[in-house]
Request: fold
Amino acid sequence: MSDRYAVIGNPIAFSKSPAIHAAFARACGQEIEYGRILGPLGGFAVAADAFRAAGGRGMNVTAPFKLDAFGYADETSRSASLAGAVNALKFEDGRVLGENFDGVGLVRDVAHNLQQALAGRRVLLLGAGGAARGALLPFLAQAPRELLIVNRTVQRAHALAEVGSRHAQAGTRVMAAAYEELQAQRFDLVFNATSASLQGELPPVPAAVLEGCALAYELAYGRGLTPFLRLARSAGAAQLADGVGMLAEQAAEAFAWWRGVRPPTGEVIAQLRVPLE
Ligand code: NDP
Reply:
């Protein structure tokens, strides 16, 4: 019987993970079974227990269960601990291991697929939720010159910047600010890690801040030109991207963690990409 994996979330019907992992398995010549589980709200542990009892080897975890999965794991990686969230589980020798690959997936997409270095650049991170927290350590590992975190609830930006300062290399400044404090500062790379786009909204970032930036990156995916990307385009951002590459790269990290081989991502990204126009 093939090894069994699944993605759990609520809702889950439109998850791209089964198609992504099936493509990875084909590309690597591996036989796996990969399904989707609609987790009942408030019932993550019961659903995960049932999957393990049925022989499941690992799970991807999506909204709203990343915090539940963190609590469910017996051991968590440093990135998962810092994010306080788990997006991949591995069941091994009776133990539950938790990882968070969102941040490394994002950095891999930026550095490898989009060919943008973070080292020495000025980086603006909008948002201080789970995705922003997951991005913090992987961003800092790239040694940007400056990382400014801006969030609607400004205390959360300050708390995250404080953690970041403790992990930053010499030569990286980590700061926090409120949207109202963002005047005409300029950045090389701007990341929208807010969930505003999921409601078709724009975080209150002034257009001037996006003027001439090298990359405007929307973490949400599959939505075409979101209000953030539209603003970035009109402000003259040199390159626009959405989170489809991040999605594929975090999936590849999970696949490698489970199966010991890292699949190629190019074809999957090309298939899932929605034009940004
Ligand atoms: P969270 O719910 O953990 O955090 C949401 C963040 O967005 C908070 O910082 C919140 O601010 C902010 N926010 C929400 N609405 C607004 C608004 N109208 N204006 C300004 N700020 C707002 O979400 P996640 O961190 O899990 O997800 C964030 C984004 O990242 C989503 O678009 C999600 O789809 C995407 N994502 C993409 C992945 C990928 O693989 N491509 C993986 C994971 C996430 P406050 O603190 O004030 O509430």
Observations:
- The radius of gyration is 18 Å.
- The chain is about 40% helix and 20% strand.
- The chain has a mean pLDDT of 96.
